[in-house]
């Protein structure tokens, strides 16, 4: 027998919560949305974005159409819309991460192997952050929904309201640009 407390997420075989049940919706999906939003805009802002996501979802619950997709992709769509509003902050954070990583690597001249590995990792973080900041908005959103939120292509299409082929294309282009940045290219 499994006991579910008020704060435990529902078992994976349970039906998705009703959009009118704010508590159940929050319990089921807040962790996923918070993880995604935190990686996009940082912990403090992510909490506000996720709270706004659930508030908007509850206020607009009449607009949810289960025939178009599941509740989680719909919530990711709302969250993505809110994150777009914060996109300038996100780009500034990525640029700051890249600059900070480069500044730290410039200061480290220690000869030991662990220091060298740390410097290499910081340079990689800087290159990835710079590449993410340079991606067009759609490619960045698709890549982050795939890599961070671990959504399937169809769920990404539903969350962003774009065709499945556009998801595949945007993901391919974003991956190519990130690989190029990691290999030192300037694509």
UniProtKB/TrEMBL annotation:
InterPro entries, from UniProt?
RNA_pol_sigma-70-like, RNA_pol_sigma-70_dom, RNA_pol_sigma70_r2, RNA_pol_sigma70_r4_t2, RNA_pol_sigma_r2, RNA_pol_sigma_r3/r4-like, WH-like_DNA-bd_sf
Q: What one GO molecular function would you report for this record?
A: sigma factor activity
The segments labelled Disordered in the record are 1-21
Q: Keywords on this record?
A: DNA-binding, DNA-directed RNA polymerase, Sigma factor, Transcription, Transcription regulation
Matching entries from CDD domains are given as:
Sigma70_r4 (cd06171)
SUPFAM superfamilies given in the database record: Sigma2 domain of RNA polymerase sigma factors, Sigma3 and sigma4 domains of RNA polymerase sigma factors
Residue spans of biased composition, Pro residues class? 8-19
Q: Which GO terms describe its cellular component?
A: DNA-directed RNA polymerase complex
The RNA polymerase sigma factor 70 region 4 type domain sits at: 128-178
Q: Name one GO biological process term.
A: DNA-templated transcription initiation
Where is each RNA polymerase sigma-70 region domain found?
A: 25-92
Q: Which NCBIfam families match?
A: sigma70-ECF
| UniProt similarity note | Belongs to the sigma-70 factor family. ECF subfamily.
Q: What is this protein called?
A: DNA-directed RNA polymerase sigma-70 factor
Q: Which species does the entry assign this protein to?
A: Catellatospora bangladeshensis
